[in-house]
Design brief:
60% helix; 113 residues; elongated; alpha+beta
Length: 113
Amino acid sequence: MARAATTSDVFNAIAEPQRRQILTLLRAGERPVTEVARELGTTQPGASKHLRVLREVGLVRDRREGRQRLYRLDARGLRPLHEWTGGFERFWNESFDRLDAYVQDLEQTRREG
C-alpha cells in the first residue's frame, strides 16, 4: 500500500513536530535556512526539506537576497486549521460555563456551611 504524501494539506504538514517549531520560529520574522537549522539543531538539508513542505502547503514563503534564501511565515495558510478548530469553540464555551457554575455552587456551599 502506498504511503500518503505528507505535503497534501496543512494538517499533514504540521503533524511533524519540527515543522511546527519552524512556524513558531518564523512568527518572530524572516530567517535564512541556516538559522532555522541551527535553532532546530538539525542539518541545513533537513531544515530545507521541512521548509519545502511548508512552502508547498502555503504556510511559508521564501525570497532570495543575494546568495541567501529567506523564509517567512504566511499565516494565511493557517486558515484551514483555524476554521477546523473554531468548530470546537462552542464545546469549550459550554464546558467553561459548566465549570463556572460548579465553582459558584462550591463557593455558595462553603459560605453557607
